[in-house]
Amino acid sequence: MAVVALAAGCGASGTGAAPSGRSSPSQPAPSRTAPASPGQPTATASVAASVTATPEPASKSASSGSGSSPARSGACTSDDLQVTVRPSPGGAAAGSQYSEIVLTNSSDHVCRTGGFGGVSYVGKGSGVQIGAPAIRDRTSAASTFLLQPGASATEQLRETDAQNYPTAKCDPTPVDGLRIYPPNETHSLYAAHPTTGCANKAVRLLEISAYRQSPAR
Questions:
Q1: What pTM, to 2 d.p., does this model score?
Q2: Per the domain annotation, does 35 fall within a domain?
Q3: 104: CATH
Q4: Which of 24, 60, 97, 151 is the most buried (most CB within 10 A)?
Q5: Which residue pairs, CB below 8 angstroms and at least 24 apart, start in 158-161?
Q6: pLDDT tens digits for the chain (217 residues)?
């Protein structure tokens, strides 16, 4: 009777070891007894479901990361930028003066800019254009770059003195400021810049360079 009890005890232990055997491929015995267990298909389906579900969170994370970058590196618009005009270092020459037009990314995302913008004098208290718009300095190489939040792009503005031209040709007119178009943008920004322009559009007083990325300060 003791031998029979011992044998029965061993049989119960072997039946209870089947679940742990499924997690250890090196034990072949459970695979022979697995079909006899009514719960086996359910456990197998559960394991398979968990395996197929594993890549899903990683996939969502990857698409979220890759999707946000292109959307945040579109062209800089006038809504993304703030403009300032400051004297250029050593910014005066015979009959002309040099200023820097600085566009700063005031948004919370990266945007893309570079190349030439547009500049013209405005006045009469209403923003009406005074004279001809700026011409481009073709010796200035244009390039495109990303502008991080808080970073700036700068172009140089050369202004020829209106007094260099005869009054009859120039038609001197007071200027209130500058209308500034960022590159590839149809909405302008305004910067106060009182001076004197020529109402005659045949007289070209303004010349601009391509925007370049301002060095970090």
A1: 0.66
A2: no
A3: 2.60.40.10
A4: 151
A5: 158/96, 158/97, 158/98, 158/206, 158/207, 158/208, 159/96, 159/97, 159/98, 159/99, 159/195, 159/205, 159/206, 160/95, 160/96, 160/204, 160/205, 160/206, 160/207, 161/95, 161/96, 161/97
A6: 343 343 444 444 444 444 444 444 444 444 444 444 444 444 443 333 333 333 333 333 333 333 334 444 799 999 999 999 999 987 777 789 999 999 999 999 999 999 999 999 999 999 999 999 999 999 999 999 999 999 999 999 999 999 999 999 999 999 999 999 999 999 999 999 999 999 999 999 999 999 999 876 5
